[in-house]
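Appendix B. One record, verbatim.
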Amino acid sequence: MTTRRSFNQALGAVLGTGAVGLPHLAFAQSGPIKVGILHSLSGTMAISETVLKDVALMTIDDINAKGGVMGRKIEAVVVDPASNWPLFAERARQLITQDKVAAVFGCWTSVSRKSVLPVFEELNNLLFYPVQYEGEELSKNVFYTGAAPNQQAIPAVEYLMSKDGGSAKRFVLLGTDYVYPRTTNKILRAFLKTKGIPDADIMEEYTPFGHSDYQSIIAKIKRFASEGKKTAVVSTINGDSNVPFYKELGNQGLKATDVPVVAFSVGEEELRGVDTKPLVGHLAAWNYFMSLKNPANDAFIKQWSDYAKAKNLPGHKDKPITNDPMEATYIGINMWKQAVEKAKSTETDKVIAAMAGQTFRAPSGITSKMDEKNHHLHKSVFIGEVRADGQFNVVWKTPGPVQADPWSDYIPENKGKKNEPVVTKRS
């Protein structure tokens, strides 16, 4: 005789739910939607990534307070890969296979993204990556909400070469020794060559993650800059090395009027622990600054300030600060929510299709759009000067959003490559 329990067990097996009874099946349809938060909360990158975990949780709390996604709450699963690149892949696999997350929001460095990429492609899950990067990659399983090189690096160097930017003729390409700085500088070298800058007028230096002694490097930059032509520094230093770099910049009196530094990985958060008075006039290129004045940014800053105080977040409860990767995280989570509701599903391929063309009113003041084909946001570009209070005055911006070009035109082997993420293409 078939009992109700054995019938439910059989039904669960047929449906592939592993359920013992129907209540579990109902929970699977109406329970929380899990998402992963994959950021370094310890190690050299914690200085930049911890706040991205916090703003992700804030965004999720906000969505839940407004009814969730399709009437279901979002449940965040937070893991700490501890600035350990192979550990990123392990934690990503854990989130997808054990925690059963529908999507993951995380990574900062390109080496961490490269580490997890095969996992997301193998298991067909989604990564939302919120930081500027070097391009030369396009995966159907990644949405890149930070800048491609033509949305940050190229405009920044064009500005340095312009009259308003100081008419630089020599360049120091200074970065942390991994894929993002090296590939970005490869693109910038090729770009500078098209502008008639010879190799002799380009100095290229790299330091390891966590490097702390910049005395000799800055002395070398000063010597290079003393050889007659206007010199500028392009910094792709990442993580907590930025603090000793900028402190030494101040110690040796390298002023922006003499040798301007434009940074691609330094924003309001990284300058928090630095005396910024000697750094006034140095530059950063981003797609968002906290100092931007518009209603969407006012609301974002207030939301973050209220959240930081309510959660008693170290550093932010008294001096709440927002920055570009925080905005990119905020946009990515909200766009994912919109795409899930459009698709009426958290299934990866359906969400990918629904992400195409998604728009969201961003704190930068523009309506961000996810490109219909290349998984990148259309983003405005801003160049800001460091102020004495650690904020930035915007000195240059694009007239409107710029469409991303993941495959740089300055890399000859990119000719003919399509900006469509069918399969991963590796440089």
